[in-house]
Amino acid sequence: MGRSSLYSDASGLKRGPWTPEEDQKLLAYIQQHGHGSWRCLPEKAGLQRSGKSCRLRWINYLRPDIKRGKFSQHEEQTIIQLHALVGNRWSVIAAHLPKRTDNEIKNYWNTHIKKRLAMMGIDPVTHRPKVASLGAADGGPKNASNLSHMAQWETARLEAETRLVKESRARHNEPTTDSLSPRSRPSPSVHLLKKMATRPRCLDILKAWQNVCFKAFESSINSNNITDLESPTSTLHFCEKTQAPPTVNASFREEMNVGLNKSGVDMVLEAAGEVWTGANDFLDRFSMTSMIMALTQVCISVAEQVIIMKTTITTIVMIS
DNA sequence: AAATCCTTCAACCGCCAGTGA
DNA sequence: GTCACTGGCGGTTGAAGGATT
Q1: Nucleic acid strand B within 7 Å of A273 CB
Q2: Is the CB of A18 under 7 A from strand B?
Q3: Which residues of chain A carry a pLDDT beneath 50?
Q4: CATH of the structural domain A1-64, one choice from 3.30.450.20, 3.40.640.10, 1.25.40.10, 1.10.10.60
């Protein structure tokens, strides 16, 4: 496989698929000497390859700590929820999946998850519902819309549960996967995600969150308009029109550019009051926001169930 | 059985950030 | 400060092989 021919390029370096002999040479050299400088490695290992090609082959295929084969359901959920958080930052996502490479995750996303989300009526880029397109495809716009939302809420619920479990586990000092990251240089985001899973959360945040969330919840139920709710994976959107408080600084807004609705986050942060003032570094803020997102998704899921029940009851009453 | 279409994924490319001279 | 080099990353390609016609 690969897109280049088997022939050597202008510099005399071989390209294209690796042969077993080449693999053996590379493996043997690295096991004996370590990779050292990738640029110098091919010559020392007796390979007619570029250092870059050797590095890629090692990272994505030859490393002994690589897990191959089908992705588990848990891995898939992790990918989806992390993608909702960080977007196409495959190296960050890979850092949280044991023995998976960023390339593998990227391929899996593009060939499997992306399509499945699209079929569920979820935009794989924004993680928001594509209600119009699903309705058009299915004939019944209303049913399609409801189906779409139910899928959304269920996805959100699973995501939230998974995230909370993960954070809880991390707090109990279970081993993280960071040491297994295919990248030797962890990105800042890896540290942030790791740190956010280990910091204790203040219950005041929960209280603050309950205030904000249930106001929106009540409002949604009163209007009885399901389509007013946004995708659970996008989270917090129903707070969007709230004005952002002045206490949250601009640099944080920049740093939080991970697909969140910032105004919604701001609103919760404002309600959190004093808790927030103590958290003046980005790590704390990121951690707090992650928790808020998880809680949002759980809450939206509950809200959806109630709305569906109310709609059903109304329908029954009308029929009877 | 052959042709065509579709899916998968290994490998490449180009860009960017970090580092040292 | 800036230049060159290196490694890391995300996007893209295209061959292989499976599925469908």
Answers
A1: no
A2: yes
A3: 1-5, 7, 133-151, 153-288, 320
A4: 1.10.10.60
